[in-house]
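To whoever picks this up:

The nightly regression suite flagged Thymidylate synthase as changed. Nothing in the input moved, so I suspect the structure step. Input below, exactly as stored in the fixture:
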Amino acid sequence: MTTFPGFQAAYLHHVADLLHDPQFHNAPRGFASQERLGVSFLLDDPRRRLITHPARRTNVVFNFAEALWYLAGRDDLDYLAYYAPSVARYSADGRCLTGTAYGPRIFRYGARSLDQWATVVDTLRQDPDSKRAVIQILRPEELHVTDNPDVACTLCLQFLLREGRLHMVGYMRANDVYRGMVSDVFSFTFLQEMMARQLGAELGGYTHVAGSLHLYQPDLPAARRLVDAPLPAGLPADAMDPLPEGDNRPYLTDVLRIEEQLRTDALRLDPDRLDALGLPGYWSQVVALFELYRRVRHGPGPDDPGPDDGLVDRLSPLYRHLMVTRFPALAALHHPMEVSDAAR
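Regenerated output under the current build:
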């Protein structure tokens, strides 16, 4: 197993490995891919969970939206499809997602609606050395549904509290190296940090294990462009700020309420309105991301803040870089010098 300081180094390494030195070429369910088996790596700093390389154009808004969707225990398509319309093809009924929706499995697993999150918290509080703090994701019955378009890719998440630090291992039955792994590592390390804060522990390392790590044929050109493009100088540091101390679930409740209002275009925020929400800086930044995405999706309205209200400038350098790279229209909403700095 290889150790990396953060996810970007691991990501670029494994994309190149799958591109240039695959172990197998195959086409499960007709989808051509190249593959390596039994791949694992360790991240020393799970807060370095974002890809800043401009060739990848990370969608940090979706990353947060998906992680919060899990933590809310939701499975509704409307929420996630707003941030990633393509997920609709995985819904069998046009209303819900099943395998993709880890939240209900985390908080209401099986016929007994087991709260696995609470079980992990209780287990580690009672026995900090336990090896039993596991959240199961894949359900055996998924494999018995004919033509199931949405089988969970994740087997389980294991939390290990060692010497005051919370480590985590994410076990994948299969992982798409170019697309899926970016979202999975973000969400899993975010869950890890939320759990660490709830337990009052420091953040330990994150280990990612994939039975099948694969690169799909349609992503080969993009993977080549990414691997061939040197990492530009002057990119912002890729480590996210730490979550506020203590249990962050009350903040999560507030942010999800605000997110729904923004998603439905029932609320519009300028910097003053954002400050009036009274959220800690970390969560205020997340809400700012959702507001800027609302502007991209819904466009200007009669009550919208002015186009140059300074909200983009309020973002951290890391988030500002990612947003301007992913959504170039936002470049007009902050100062040209800052666009230049963020896009270097």
